[in-house]
Amino acid sequence: MAVVIKKIELNNWFGYKGSYDENTFEFSDGVNIIVASNDVGKSKLHNAFRWIVSDKVILKDKENKYSLEDIDLNTVSEILNHDIRNQLKNEETATIGVRLTFEEIDRRGDTFNRIITKELICKKDVNRITVSNPITKVQRNERGNIRTAPESFEEVKNKIIRQNLKDFFLVQGESLEHLTPLKGESLRTTINNLVSINELDKKCDTSIKMAKKITLLRQDIEKAEDSKNAQASSNTKRKNDLENDIIDIIENQLIDVQNFIDESERIIIKFKGQAEIAKNQKGLKQRIDDFNKKINTKEGIINSGYKRLVENFINRDFYLSKLTNDQVEKINLNKFKSYFRDFSALRRTELNDALSVEEQKMLYALQKDQPSPQILEQMLIEGTCYVCSNDLNEKSRIYMNEKLIPYFRNELNKNDDELNKYDELNSIYLKLEGYLNKFNHFDSNYLQKIIDDIVENENSKRELEFDKDDFIKENGMVDDNDIDNISLETYDNAIRDKSKFSENKINLENKLTSKERELTEIKLTTINKEESSKLKKSKEIEQFGIDLKNVFLEIKKEAYENFASDLEIITNNKFKAFSEDNSKFKNQSIKVDFSINHAGNPDFEIKVIDQVGNNLKQGGGASQALRQLAVIFGLIEKAGGNVDYPFIADAPTSNMTHTLSEHFFNYQLKNATTQNILITKELWNDQKNTLNDIGERILKNIEEIENAKMISIVFNENEKKKVRIENLKNI
Amino acid sequence: MDQIIANHSLNIDQNFESFINNFCSTTGTSFPQGKLGNYLGSWYEGFLFCLLIGLNTNSRHYNGYEKKYQKMPNWSTQNIDQYKYCIAKVLAREDIIKELNIDNREGIKKSFNSTEELLKQVKEICEEFSLGGLHYLIKLHENDNTIFNDPLALKTIYENTLN
Q1: Distance separating alpha carbons of residues B138 and A681, to the nearest angstrom
Q2: Considering CB atoms only, which of B39, B48, B85 is closest to A436?
Q3: In chain B, N or C terminus with fewer CB closer than 10 Å?
């Protein structure tokens, strides 16, 4: 049974503008190498195979990450040829389609040929493109006549590459690690699908079931016999319960928990890359946020500084008043005040002119001694003049009472309007001096301190901004939308789950050990009890069942061990062959780890190790890619004639050096056992738009092999956006 | 005298209110978004700022308000001391006491009737100087419309008027 893809035809599929007959690739049944430069349509061609086989396409997102997508409203615009899409008018339709012709030759040599077509009708609806459900067609070629075939599309597509093997036969070089699992449940399923080793599993299962049935039978007999003896009955019941518990732990609980661990592990592997990137980006984002936070804090301090500054310009400390010393104003106020005093004195003199010369003299004498009205009043009480020591006569008394005392009390001219004006002005100017000096006591450097503070913070803010810019320049800008939080969360949850389930597993194992110990003790205490011959026989049969089960398990284990060891040899041969004598890989080899888990199921893990057995997880892209390819071809070889599916690979050597890449293609040309469709850019010179030296050498080798073929995809010179498919070597 | 000054009203020329908003709030909303140190929180402060500018540059707008509008009936207690300071500065000027005719005995006898009347005249003079300061700022702004953008603009403008 070998499947050979004869041709694939594309209709308005990505860059392949035009109808099926304009975009046809015809393949030989051997190795077909399709060469082209970047962006001409290599991955799009590979996607055509993928869409037929799996309903999905691989698209690159903005960050150049690959993801499996359906063709729907969100993606159809990318897939429908852009020229066609842009020319579509409202309500107009266009068809996207892939047609694949293949043959299957069975062991008797009978040929089964089918042409399968899968199409989508796209319609322009105002600003978007709507898309129909896939329309599929299965036809056969009967001596040149194309007729409808009886099978369903699903049935036929499964013949090209079996669904559960598509990850091994339909590979994408740049995302090999994500799409081709080399660990856990997926690898086990793949191995079981590729090789018939799991037939042993069925035999083992039967023996386990049989042993269990016999145990139940023996338990029934024992129960019946123990019913007379309460202690024995209780022991037997406990023993039976323990046995059942142990079976439940082994057959259900441990399997469940192991499945959870496997599933968590699968998620961890799948999301590790994205999660690490996301974690890294989150770290970068955190650093940028820290910068922003510090800058914002500085900005806050600066703003509050400015606020304090302006608030104190006029409010509160009235900073503006301190920018001048107001000396002129102070002198003037004093000067004006003295005017009013002078005017007042003059006016008083005018008013005092009415006094006699004697009065003047006396007043002069009194003024000299600075008599206060109180002293004059005292003189009146004592009746003696303090100046001449004579007794005061009546005239003097009247004079003092009516003239001198009011004079000194300033009451004499209180009704003089002019004098009042000078006094009022004098008191106004006294107040004005107070107003002008009001802000003198405040710290005149206060505002300058605020300004210095602002300047210092401005400088440190600028430094932070420079640091932030440098950081972004060095590490790139990250915003929240750039961070793949879903992957990170999924990965973290899986790590948590794995640890939780691993703990559960340990608890279950402890529980199992303790139950097994208790069971042994019970068995020891009851071993001496007298047993009927029926019970003895049943126990013998039970032991036989257990032994038989163990024998099958041993055989199964041995078979798997042999398989793992064979696979290791084959994959290592492939690994060595692909890496040829490259010194980088000299000390590396592939290790196929194998164990039987609690549930009796085999667990595989395939890894690259160094000469002392260390797992080279970070072995670099090339060694990981080589490992993937070696395992793929190792498994295909191990499967022998069971799986003659075509191997369709996009960029299988994308992570390898030119030498390794050349070696890989030459190796496949000589050794491929099934049809190979290998799409690559490694053999193409982008600048000259022709084959490079390696390509030329491979073409030369191809020319010597009957069923090998090389096809190039180039842009059409006449119609720039259209591609041209050329057979570089026809078979 | 303190009470008389406190009872002075605060007026604004509505024709210039939108220009005033370049550096001062006339609605009592302080520090709108994007305005920092160059923004005064009330027209009391704005009035005093213009008055000081007017006094420093000897800019006096004798024509009075084009479109007078009473912002507040009394002077704010928060800025009363600053206002009194300005009044002191006004009354410390030789030209002003000459104008008020209180620099000689005959003048005082003839022109000075009461503190209240004198302070009323001084208030008008303050308003004229404040308007003069405002026109000085308008001119500056006409020459350079980014004059208020610098956070330290008001300080710089004020300092320049001292030279």
Answers
A1: 71
A2: B85
A3: C
Q: Please report, for residues A84, A174, A309, the alpha-carbon distance to residue A447 in angstroms, rounded to integers and kept in the order given.
A: 70, 65, 6
Q: Beta-carbon neighbour count of residue A508 at 10 Å?
A: 19
| Average pLDDT of adjacent 10-residue blocks, chain A of 731 residues | 88 91 92 89 91 88 76 89 89 94 83 91 88 92 87 88 77 66 71 69 82 87 74 78 86 85 85 85 88 90 80 74 81 88 79 58 58 78 82 84 73 73 88 84 69 88 91 81 82 91 92 90 70 82 88 84 86 81 75 76 79 64 71 76 80 79 87 88 87 92 90 78 72 48
* Tokens read off for B51: 């008055």
- Strand partners of residue A142: A145
Q: How far is CA A368 from CA A114, A365, A371, A399, B79, in A?
A: 143, 5, 8, 19, 48
Residues of chain A positioned with their CB less than 8 A from the CB of B85? 318, 321, 435-436, 438-439
Mark out the alpha helices in A227-253 (DSSP H runs): 230-248
Chain B residues touching residue A317 (CB < 8 angstroms): none
* Cα–Cα distance, A305 to A640 (Å, whole number): 81
Helix (H) or strand (E) holding A33: strand A31-36
C-alpha to C-alpha distance for A114 and A3, rounded to whole angstroms: 11
- Residue keyed to tokens 């041969």: A573
- A83, with CB counted inside 10 A (0-12, 13-18, 19+), is middle
Residue type, A236: T
Determine the residue among B91, B111, B126 to mutate to test chain A binding: the one whose Cβ has the most chain A Cβ atoms within 10 Å. Answer: B91
Give strand ranges (E) for A51-176. Answer: 57-60, 66-69, 93-105, 111-125, 128-131, 135-142, 145-148, 170-172
- Measured in whole angstroms, the distance separating CA A344 from the mean position of its chain's CA atoms is 91
Domain-wise residue ranges, chain A:
229-299+479-530, 324-437
The domain total for chain B is: 1
Structural domain range at position B79 = 2-162
Q: In whole angstroms, give the CA distance from residue A75 to residue B86.
A: 74
CA distance A171 to A506: 38
pTM for the model stands at 0.49
Which ranges in A476-532 belong to alpha helices (H)? 485-526
CB contact under 8 A, B114 and A330: no
Among chain B residues, CA nearest to A417: B109
> Token pair for residue A286?
């955190």
Cβ-Cβ contacts under 8 Å, B40 against chain A: 310, 313-314
